Amino acid sequence: MDSLAMEWKKRFENVWDPKGQGKYRLGSPGERLVPLFCNYVKPGQVINEYGSGTGRAVVAIREHGNYKINMVDIAENALEDAAKGKLGDDLSLTIAPLWQLP
């Protein structure tokens, strides 16, 4: 990562860290929208989820159907254990800023 990416990575890791600002863990707007989202996306489709954060939305989407999901976030400390435990062939995580996706 270049210096700009590292600067933003540090910022976002701070807002995910309960010992830092930690306020991003208080809720999940994406998780609240999952029922509506799943009305539009058919099972079996590939979903790219940018700014995955805790992964709560992804866990909820997986409960609605069989989807292949590619998560992207810049903060390595954001993803919660419930989502980490589901990583595999149909659920991936890429740590990168959006402007430097591999």
Helix proportion: 25-40%
The largest β sheet comes out as: 3 strands, parallel
Number of DSSP strand runs: 3
Low-confidence stretches: none
Give the H and E element order. HHEHEHE
Q: Report the end-to-end length measured between terminal Cα atoms.
A: 11 Å
- Major sheet: arrangement of strands: 1-2-3
Shape, principal axes of CA atoms: globular
Mean pLDDT rating:
92
User: With helices defined by DSSP (H or I, 4 residues minimum), what is the helix count?
Assistant: 4
> In angstroms, what is the radius of gyration?
14 Å
By helix and strand content, what is the structural category? Answer: alpha/beta
- The quaternary organization reads as single chain
Strand content: 15-25%
Tell me what the structure shows.
The chain is of the alpha/beta class and 102 residues long. 38% of the residues lie in helices and 16% in strands. It has a three-stranded parallel beta sheet with strand order 1-2-3, with no helix packed on it.
Any key phrases for this structure?
102 residues; alpha/beta; globular
In short:
The N and C termini lie close together (11 Å).
Layout of secondary structure:
Blueprint: H1 3-16, H2 29-40, E1 46-50, H3 56-64, E2 68-73, H4 81-84, E3 91-95
Parallel strand pairs: 1-2, 2-3
